[in-house]
Amino acid sequence: MWAREGQRGGYFCLRRLLLEDIPVKQGGNPKCDPFAPSAQIVETGDTNQDGVLDFEEFVEYLHNHEKQLKVMFHHVDRNKDGRIDVEDIQHCLHIIGVNVSPEDATRIMLSMDRDGTMTINWSEWRDYFLFKHLSDMEDVARFWKRSMILDTGEQLTVPEEFSEAQKKSGYMWRQLMAGVMAGSVSRTGTAPLDRLKVFRQVHGSSDFRGSALSGFKYMLNEGGPWSLWRGNGVNVLKIAPETAIKFSAYEQIKTVMRGHDETRTLRLHERFVAGSLAGAIAQTIIYPMEVLKTRLNLRKTGQFTGIADCAKQILQREGAAAFYKGYVPNMLSIVPYAGIDLAVYETLKLSWLNRNTGLSDPGVMVLLGCGAVSSTCGMLASYPLALVRTRMQAQASVKGSPKLSMLSLLRNIVTQEGIAGLYRGISPNLLKIVPAVSVSYVVYEYMRIMLGVDIEGGE
Fold it and tell me: Per the database record, which ranges form the EF-hand domain (predicted)?
């Protein structure tokens, strides 16, 4: 295989082999680290299943993978001139619904262009992708796209895109399950801050004054250390159904939007509309759990024996309509949160790429930073509606609280507490963004490894 490229190809191969730390058998029996980036290559090339690659297996893997890359190269090279240009890259990303500008496509191309021709030849393509476990064109496009599913305990943005092959293989649901587990751990870790936020939203201007520290002291004195996690059970339980409903609804809405042209790729604004509608459907179905979470957050020791008892008491005392108190402001908050979150995330990512030409992948820390900032901006825009929603959910549980409509409640807050009253309790919410994103990412990546989903979107 390497005779065509001469000694340079063989040297390049062995050098990359050492840099990637792929375990090749040379008399010993080194084991493959399942957390290493090369684990998928070892698993694919290890035909005798002994956990290592011998030289013959390694050469055979490279031979087969090079043939795959050759097919992909010719597929991207639409005019068959032996070179991939900016328009070819744009088209490759367009097939999975990612529309990039010529400037962004140029940045991707520059990360592979070694000879300065502003195009990519076969050698450059092969050298760039040779040690990346990719099996088809969608894998290549998704490698360039690079995205993560992170849970911060707030509204979820536009869902991730999955190919038909990923849906049929079960990859999609394994990745979603990794997101669910990450969200569960993340929300549990930041639950005390979330409960403090709810307390300050509901009681902030009356009988719950003081700093965050005094708020924690109040909760500890009233119910002990475990009281800091009140309401977290239902908050975790609603992640899985909300995620499943949202992604299922998203796929159905996309099908309706495409109409008779089933292969048409949705534009960005269409994906945003579909994601917002899917979020509204999911929130409508699981909204009673939101009400239960708020009531359990606010409960005093001994008030309810559990989630079922809380639901039973609400139903008996207030009727079924109580499970949808605050529904309108909750629905109104979806669009500003998701829209601003998505717009800020893309703006920050592209801004980083503009300052770092030649790099197509921002990297994990940059993406985490963009996610934390964009989530914060989305939360700031939708917070007043979230506060009104929480107060409406809690009205019956607060002694002497009048049963006001959304507009009346907004008017009262501004009149009695000023504009700052619309942001009551925002400090603990801001404090939990960074730990929530960080914990969510770490758990998400480990769960993807355990479930057989690699970093670049393959299995």
Answer: 64-99, 100-135
